[in-house]
Structures are given as C-alpha cells and as structure tokens.
Amino acid sequence: MIQYIPFIAVVCMIFIGLYAAMFRRNLIKIVIGITIIESGVNLFLITLGYREGGVAPIYTSLPSGTVYPEQMVLPVPQALTLTSIVIGVAVLALMLSLVMHIYKKYETLDVQEMRRLKE
Amino acid sequence: MTYLEALIQHSVALIIAVPLLSAFLMPLVSRVHPILRNIFALLMLTVTGCFIGLLTTDVLANGPRIYIFGAKELTLPLVRILFEVDGINVFMAIITIILAIIAVIYSWSFLDKQDGLDKYYTLLLLVVTSALGMEMTGDVFNFFVFLEISCIASCALIAFWIAEGEALEAAFKYIVISSVGALFVLFAVGIFYAQYNALNIATIAQAIQFSFLDKIALILLVVVLGMKAGLAPMHMWLPDAYGRAPPSVTLVIMSATLASFYGVLRILFTLYGNILPTSIRFDLPLNVVLGWILIVLAVVSILIGVIMALIQSDLMRLIGYAAVAEVGYMFLAIGTTIAALGAPYATVALHGGILHVLNDALDIGLLFLVAGAIYYVTKKRSLDDIGGLARTMKFTTVFFIIGLLAVAGMPPLNGFTSKFLIYESVYQLNPILSIIALLCSILMLAIFIKVLYATFFGPELPELKDVKEAPKSMLLAMGIVAGLAIFIGLFPNLFLDSLVKPAADALLNHTQYITTIVGGI
C-alpha cells in the first residue's frame, strides 16, 4: 500500500490543479493551478525513477560491493524532470508577465470582467 | 564519402540547427542594420529549405533515414535522442518551411514601423524550429520539449500587438491551454517509460500491449494534440489566437498547429499501429471506435466552424473559424481512414487528408494575408467599417477571390483536389457525412462571397478614399501563395504521386518505421 501513496498524491495534485485552472476566476489562481499540475507530473516522473536496491549512477562514490552496472539506476526520469522543471519556469515567467500586462490594461484580474473575445 | 553525401547525412540535424542558431544570432544581426536582419532571416530559412529539399530527394529515393545524436557505440539503445525521417515527415517539413518563408517575406513591409522586431524574428525562427523538431523527432520526450518551445514562442508572438487588450487575452488563453496540454503529454510520456523503459517511438510501438495505462495515454495524447490542432470542442483558442496575432505570425502558428496534427497521425498510425485491429469490447475493433469518434468530432468542427464564421463581423476572426472547419475536413479524412482500415477507399481518404494539410495551409494562409493587407491599409478590422476597396486594391482583390474559391473547394484550385478525394472516400463509408461536408463547403463559399461584397465591392466609403494598394513585399508573398494554389490545382497528380503517396505509405506501413530503428541499431 505504502508504495502507491506517491501515485495517489500525483492524481490528487493533477485534479486540484485542473480544478483551479478551469473554475477559478482569478488569473493568478489559474497560474497557480497550472504550477500544481506541473508539480504533480514531475512527482510522477520522479516516482517512476525509484528502483529498490539501486544506487545513484555516480562512479566516484559507489558503495563497496556494488555490482556494476546492474545495480546502478538509469537516470532518465531524473533528466526528464530537470528538463521539465526548466521549461516550467519559462512558462511560469511568461504567464506572470502576461498577467501583469493584463492587469495594467484592465485593472482587474477577474476573468469574467475582461472577456472582450466572445462568440 | 563525398561532400554531398555528408551534407545529406547531416541535413537532419542541420534542419533544426540552422533556424535555432540563427534565432539566437538575430538580436546581434539586427544591431547592424534592420534590412540586414530581414535578409538574414530570409537567407537562413532558404538554407533550411535547401536542406529539406536535399533530405526529401534522399528519403523518397532510399527510404527512412535515422540520425543519432550522441555516442554511437553505447550498448543501451533506449536513451539516445534520435531523429527518424520518412515520407510524412519531409512532407510536413516542406509545408512548415514554405509557410515560414512566406511569413518572413510578408512581414518585411507589414511590420515595417513596429518596435521589437529583433525579438519578433527570434521568436518566429524559434516557432519554425519547434515545428520542424516536432515533425522530425523519433522520440516522445523530444516531442514534448519541442511542443513546449512552440507553446512559449507562439504565445509571445500572439501577444505581439501588446497595446491591445484582446491580444493579451488571446495569448493568455493560448498559453493556459497549451501548457496544460503539454503537461498531459509529459504524463503520457511517463506512462510509456514506466511500462516499456523506452522513450523511442519505434521501440514503444513494437512493445505496445494496450494495457489500461496505454488506453489512458492514448486518450491523453489524442485529446491534447487534437486540441492543439484545433479540433472541436476544444477549438476556442484558435479563432482568438489567429484573429488577434499579426497575420504573418498566424502563418507560423498555423505551421505549429499542423505539426500537432502530424503528431496525431504519428501516434495513431505508428505508435498504436500494431494494436489498431485488436477488438476492445462487444467485438468492436479499436480502429472502428477510434475512427468514428474522430469522424463525429470532425463533423462537429466543420459545423461549428462554418456556423460561427457566418455570424462574425471581424474579418480575421471569421477566417479563424473557417480554419477550424478546414481542420475538421482533415480529421474527417483520417477518421475515415482509421475506421475503414484496409479498405481501398481508406487509402484514398488518407491521400485526400494529407494533401488537404498542404491546401489548408495555403488557402487559409492566403486569406489571412489578404486580411492583413486590408488591416495594413485601412487600420480597421470590422467588416462594417470597410467597403469598396476593389477600386484601389486591384491585386489584393484578385488574391482574395483566388483564396475564397480555393477554400471553398472550387475547381481548378487546389482545395478542389483534396476535398474531392475526401468526399469520394467518405461517401463510401457513409453518404450522409459526405453530404454534410459538401454542404458546409458550399456554405463557406457563400460566407466568403458575402465578405467579398462587403469589403471589396459596394459603394466607396468617404474615409477610405485615399487608401493605396498594399506594399510590394506583401503582394509578393500573396502572389507566391496564390501561384502555388493555382499550380497545385492544375497539376494535382504531380504532388499526389511525388509527395502525398510516399507520405501515406509511410503512415500505413508502420512496420517499416519500427524495423528501421529496432533492427538497425
């Protein structure tokens, strides 16, 4: 049971984030929702990377008696997560700068009050 | 190895590298002189186009080509980034580069007096890079990275006219939708990695089992990429983004959209190609269920696109809804192909669908360019404020007439060929679908005739008395697109035999794609 807890947390985070992105009216809260989804997906990737009995693939600090290379963990999910975090920062910065410009323009952050693009 | 062979071998990497590096050189070059900047962008895209041409001749003659980044001698085959290029990849790359070159020619005078053009060209080249990357990569995670690059760069370009609140709104809508979508693509990538320990499309496609997790991944990928391609009911961002971005930007965003459409094709035909005929429940094979879902969504897109275009008064937004309808035609074709996998008319539908990707890019692109020319000379968007422009803008009027006939599928223009193939094959699946598609096409013609009368004919408006014809570079860009539209309309077999059929074969014969990688390494 204990090994499923991270996956349950992933699903919860993704749904909380989706709820915020879809139903909240404040732009900042939408941005926060997207960030929560991103953290959920990153947690998912990191959880996949865990292997029982594996060691980190650092040649210089291998514990003695390690069977090389079978016991070493392939660090692909960690690499994916790092890439995803970097992309996430770029998206977050861009979204916040857009929110800033929207606030300057409309002087509100409420989605309902600024909808000029209709139909 | 001769010089040319080495060039062809490395062209796969150079097609990505040239626009990417020139994007980041752009701020430096534009410090020297604005005209040098424009020439540099055009030159680098032409060089990329030459590499794509070289690669196309090679791929069509010798079959799929693999390019491996990083160590070749590594014994673990699953973690290397590699590009695999076959018929459909080069076809999509050709469309992307044509749209990009036209956009750069057009923006030469269209954005003449704007600020921040160095950043504009940087972002434009980044969108082109990301679209080319999505179209050529053979790795699902790499696909996600390029999807995110296209999302960030396109969003910044949509907000180019930052003084308008609507542009900001459209950009925010776009980035929310596409970043959430891209995160779900990453989730699907994680699901694949968890099950098959691989990120390579061919390796996953060979091992795929259609477990419960694979079903989730399939739904996520098709929904997200369908949304990025503009399929109803997730099309809302498309008319906003297309209608509010500068028309030259719309062209490159359209190439990113079509790259997402390519993603749908690759996922359905190659990634899940091995298990398409397996039956899921009640003896229904997966391909029939999936095909009919796509067909229903496609018909909804066509109807929504046409009906919403009918009531628009903003010209660019109206064309945006027409673009939704055109995306519907493409999905109608591939839905038919999947639902009737194996039947002779399925191949015809796929030919029509693939050719329609090129035709949609040209037709909708031409209409956007004309709308941009009208906006450039009058500074007005609404159809109610413009009229009688044919007196002063003769060439633009001719280009608009070509565009409207092409988008409505009238012979002898390019839209006719692909739409005819689609009607013909869809009719054999179900006649009603074909009738709906045909009627909507006629309705589209009626809508654009209305626009033609509202903007170009009718009484001359006093405040538009001293408008001039659009500048030369814009006319040149429109002329190239119109010429291509007429050329494809007159000689469709040339394109069908040399480009579309290899592309369709590459999709239908997915074992070749898999064995090239799995056997070749």
Describe this structure in words.
The complex is a heterodimer of chains A (119) and B (521). Chain A has 119 residues and is an all-alpha fold. Chain A is built from three helices and no strands. Chain A has helices at 5-23, 27-48, 76-106. The longest helix of chain A has 31 residues, at 76-106. Chain A is elongated. In chain B, a hairpin with a 2-residue loop joins strand 3 and strand 4. Chain B folds into two domains: 1-275, no CATH class; 280-490, no CATH class. Chain B has a two-stranded antiparallel ribbon with strand order 1-2. In chain B, strands 3-4 form a two-stranded antiparallel ribbon. In chain B, helix 3 (87-110) packs parallel to helix 13 and helix 11 (286-310) packs antiparallel against helix 12 (315-339). The chains are: A mainly alpha (119), B mainly alpha (521). Chain A binds chain B through residues 14, 18, 21, 27, 30, 34, 37-38, 41, 44-45, 48, 74, 76-77, 80, 83-84, 87, 90-91, 94-95, 98-99, 101-102, 105-106, 114-117, 119, and chain B through 76, 79, 141, 145, 148, 151-152, 155-156, 159, 162, 165-166, 168-173, 175-176, 179-180, 183, 186-187, 189-190, 193-194, 199, 240, 244, 308, 311-312.
Topology:
The complex is a heterodimer of chains A (119) and B (521).
Chain A: H1 5-23, H2 27-48, H3 76-106
Helix pairs in contact in A: 1-2, 2-3
Chain B: H1 3-32, H2 34-62, E1 65-68, E2 82-85, H3 87-110, H4 117-136, H5 140-158, H6 165-196, H7 201-207, H8 212-229, H9 237-244, H10 247-271, E3 279-281, E4 284-285, H11 286-310, H12 315-339, H13 344-378, H14 394-407, H15 414-429, H16 431-455, H17 472-490, H18 492-508, H19 510-518
Antiparallel strand pairs in B: 1-2, 3-4
Helix pairs in contact in B: 1-2, 1-4, 2-3, 3-4, 3-10, 3-13, 3-17, 3-18, 4-5, 4-10, 5-6, 5-10, 6-8, 6-9, 7-19, 8-10, 9-10, 9-12, 10-13, 11-12, 11-16, 12-13, 12-15, 13-14, 13-15, 13-17, 13-18, 14-16, 14-17, 15-16, 15-17, 17-18
